């Protein structure tokens, strides 16, 4: 099997995890790192280091991870696309929908593979929920609700909680419902600043599904849950606990198409298959796709751009107090 030559640009928290993951992944050789901060580069002794993505382009890369601050994603991504270098670009894909679409267009025109690092999709409870939900095991999907909370670390300064955290849940909602977000209402509050530190939103997805979201980084414990309300009950995916629980609806369907009612039933834990860590799974998918395998499972640039557009609309809704229509070129997901 060919060994792929890879590099990482940007060595903050996410970039450092990507670098360590690539260094340990079979079939991949981490050949260089780029970051303008010498202290970050010093944390990876023994590897060639440079200060920019353009320096990396001279190293015959098979793919590159973009994990810079969000504002620099477009410049790095366009340089890679122009050079024909495949890329895994951290979420959010870009700071605006227009920038995200420019990135997507550049890679499409170059005929070069690229994906977005929405790693939450690869947590075992969410992956198993998606598999069973899309197979029709739980009947119709009625509603989604997410909660993503944690302490204030101060490590993210270029964006607020919406683009750092809520963008995950906006993406998860579209992925699970297989529909794009059409409108958003929201509220947000600045506490520590300079951007919003807590935000709550309700999005309306094509087909009539509501998704309710809350995220903040003012909570002294970590909380990560997604609930899918279906005809057969509520599925709760907890990625902190690593569990998926089905609280069943004991009501009996009278006939097809009629609301069966909701009656409390049993709660049962769904056994989850063993899976690698989310970052490892992302890179396994990139590696296999570049070696001729199926690119399924990777988050496409179109999906990443749709998540950016919906999150951008969310911030506009919070600022104006209005319901905002999402600007998106993404069709219904299949």
TrEMBL record:
Q: Which SUPFAM superfamilies match?
A: Glyceraldehyde-3-phosphate dehydrogenase-like, C-terminal domain, NAD(P)-binding Rossmann-fold domains
Question: Which is an annotated Pfam family here?
Answer: GFO_IDH_MocA
Record-annotated GFO/IDH/MocA-like oxidoreductase domain positions: 128-234
Q: Which residues form the Gfo/Idh/MocA-like oxidoreductase N-terminal domain?
A: 4-118
Q: Name one GO molecular function term.
A: nucleotide binding
Q: Which Gene3D superfamilies match?
A: Dihydrodipicolinate Reductase, domain 2, NAD(P)-binding Rossmann-like Domain
Name the keywords, alphabetized.
Answer: Signal
Q: Where is the signal peptide?
A: 1-19
Q: What is this protein called?
A: Gfo/Idh/MocA family oxidoreductase
Q: What species is given as this protein's source?
A: Streptomyces montanus
């Amino acid at each position: 099997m060919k060994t792929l030559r890879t590099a990482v640009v940007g060595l903050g928290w996410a970039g450092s995890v990507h670098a360590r993951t690539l260094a340990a992944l079979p079939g991949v050789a981490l050949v260089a790192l780029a970051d303008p901060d010498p202290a970050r580069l010093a944390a990876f002794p023994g590897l060639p280091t440079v200060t920019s993505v353009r320096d990396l382009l001279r190293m015959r890369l098979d793919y590159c991870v973009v994990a810079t601050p969000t504002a620099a994603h477009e410049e790095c991504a366009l340089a890679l696309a122009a050079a024909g270098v495949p890329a895994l670009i951290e979420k959010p894909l870009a700071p605006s929908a227009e920038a995200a679409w420019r990135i997507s267009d550049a890679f499409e025109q170059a005929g070069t593979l690229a994906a977005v690092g929405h790693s939450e999709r690869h947590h075992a409870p969410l992956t198993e929920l998606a598999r069973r939900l899309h197979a029709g095991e739980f009947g119709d999907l009625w509603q989604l609700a997410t909660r993503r909370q944690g302490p204030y670390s101060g490590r993210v300064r270029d964006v607020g909680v919406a683009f750092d955290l809520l963008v995950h849940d906006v993406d998860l909602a579209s992925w699970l419902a297989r529909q794009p977000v059409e409108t958003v209402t929201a509220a947000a509050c600045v506490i520590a600043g300079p951007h919003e530190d807590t935000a709550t939103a309700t999005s309306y997805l094509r087909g009539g599904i509501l998704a309710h979201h809350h995220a903040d980084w003012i909570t002294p414990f970590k909380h990560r849950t997604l609930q899918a309300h279906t005809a057969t009950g509520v599925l709760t995916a907890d990625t902190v606990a690593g569990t998926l629980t089905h609280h069943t609806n004991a009501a009996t369907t009278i006939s097809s198409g009629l609301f069966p009612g909701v009656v409390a039933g049993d709660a049962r834990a769904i056994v989850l298959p063993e899976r690698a860590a989310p970052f490892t799974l992302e890179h396994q998918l990139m590696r296999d796709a570049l070696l001729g395998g199926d690119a399924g499972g990777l988050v496409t640039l179109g999906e990443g751009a749709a998540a950016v557009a919906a999150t951008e609309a969310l911030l506009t809704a919070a600022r104006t107090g209005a319901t905002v229509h999402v600007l998106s070129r993404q069709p219904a997901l299949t």
